[in-house]
Amino acid sequence: MAQDDLQLMRDLVDNQPDGFALPRHFYTSQDVYEHDIKAYWNHSWIWVGHVSQIPNPGDYFLFDYAKESIIVVRDREGEVRAHMNVCRHRGSRVCTEKQGNARVFSCPYHAWTFDLSGKLRGGRAMGPDFDPSKYGLFPAQIRIFEGLIFVCASEDAPPIDAGLSELQTHAAPFDFANVKVAHEASYPVPANWKLALENYMECYHCAPSHKEYSRSHSLKDPAEMEGLLEPLQERSCAIGLKTEEVNQTGTDSAGPAADVYWRRYPLFEGYQTGSKDGQPLAPLLGTLTGFDGGATDMQIGPLNNFLIYADHVVGYRFVPTSLQETDIQIVWYVRGDAEEGIDYNKDDLTWLWHVTSLDDERIIRHNQEGVNSHRFEPGPLSDMEWGILTFYHSYLAMI
Ligand code: FES
Ligand code: FE
Q: How confident is the model at residue 1 (pLDDT cuts 50, 70, 90)?
């Protein structure tokens, strides 16, 4: 980043008034975008998948963001590992298939060959002094939380372990380790990644923008939620859930981008899960003994969000592909032994968050269009947008 730009950005960060949206530069500058990737994304935990996607040694998938690509693979010993997908010879992508099963990773350029643990086996015609042990694939950090895989491209990843153990007892009854992917979808939006993430971090927009969601979920209106919360907690207890909230975000987190959050909130009467008619969509997760008519917001690091119903989980991430292009990636998980067509129907399962994501794509797109105008001036945030402030807290600290 040019010195001038860096100084401009420092000034913007220093002068960012509390309780206001960020200025236009943060969403329109190529320099800021590149700095975001370097300083924020490369140093954050990113949820990339689930262990059920790579059950056997050699199974792998790629996770890409911005200009980065990470190979997530199960090695010969059964360990899940993550390697930067960059050859240590002259930098080619080592792996070019999105997913598959590999015995080794052989670079398509000059055939340097890496084993599943990332070690270089040898380079062709490199001479007697060549030491392959110096040229293994660069590792990415990895954490597995209840089967969900998180990676971080840098060595100083946010200190998330204490937060994860705090979440563990809350998550245990859902047995995420034994879910499977029912469906994955991607909703590309022509907007900066921060606008897409910020949109997810607040439900101020839910009432005006999401009629299907608002019919069944109380989150959009704190007043409506009030009277429903206590009866929900009784029902949640009865099916084996812990009801306390976990909120280690913003200034209460273990460090920038080490936020963890867990809160179960009520659906309206007649809704057991996030379905069109309120009826169950899939077999109960884990050890749950019934439906409580609730949904949990779980957040692990600012970039990874999950909505947990009694019978399915929906994961959301907002992956930057360029300055004003973001991929909204959504994954639906159901019980590992549930069979499509028998235990669940994919169209019914995905209906709510498909229609809701189409709404989100539209409102985020319009948001970026307005922010691009020379006349945009950041306005004050409402109390219902506190989630955005916790994101700014880590963002402004890390950039
Ligand atoms: Fe990979 Fe040359 S760049 S072997
Ligand atoms: Fe939304």
A: low
DSSP state of 267: B
Q: Which ligand is nearest to the CA of 353?
A: 2
Substitution candidate for ligand 1 out of 112, 114, 126, 135 with most atoms within 8 A of CB? 112
Q: What is the pLDDT of residues 130-143, one digit of tens each?
A: 999 999 999 999 99
> In the predicted model, what is the mean pLDDT of residues 315-338?
98
CA pseudo-torsion sign 50, 68, 164, 58: positive
Query: Which residues fall within 8 angstroms of residue 146, CB to CB, at 6 or more apart?
Result: 168, 171, 172, 174, 175, 176, 177
Closest CA to 297 of 394, 390, 382: 390
Average pLDDT over residues 181-208: 97
For residues 300 and 97, what is the distance between their CA atoms, to the nearest angstrom? 28
pTM exceeding 0.90: yes
- 0.90 surpassed by complex ipTM: yes
Q: How many structural domains compose the chain?
A: 2
- What are the pLDDT digits (tens) for 290-314? 999 999 999 999 999 999 999 999 9
Ligand 1: nearest atom to the Cα of 112: 4
Nearest alpha-carbon partner for 103 in 115, 92, 93: 115
Residue 152 located in a structural domain: no
Q: Is residue 28 part of a domain?
A: no
Q: Give me the percent of the chain exceeding a pLDDT of 90.
A: 90
One-letter amino acid at 333 equals Y
Question: 194-209 burial, b if ≥16 CB within 10 A, otherwise e?
Answer: bbbbbbbbbbbbbeeb
Q: Which helix (H) or strand (E) holds 51?
A: none
Take atom 4 of ligand 1 and give the residue whose Cα is closest: 110
Q: Check whether residue 224 and residue 287 sit in a common domain.
A: yes
CATH of the domain at 71: 2.102.10.10
- For residue 320, is it within any domain? yes
Q: Compute the distance from residue 125 Cα to the ligand 1 centre, in Å.
A: 12
What pLDDT is stored for residue 18 in this prediction? Answer: 87
Any residues with CB less than 8 A from the CB of 125 and at least 6 apart, and which? none
Give me ligand 1 centre to Cα 113, in Å: 9
The residues, any chain, with a CB within 8 Å of residue 286's CB and separated by 6 or more, are 172, 173, 174, 175, 176, 178, 335
Domain shared by 136 and 170, yes or no: no
At what angle are helices 193-200 and 346-371 packed, to 10 degrees?
120
Ligand 2 centroid to Cα of residue 8, in Å, is 32
Range of the domain at 200: 161-398
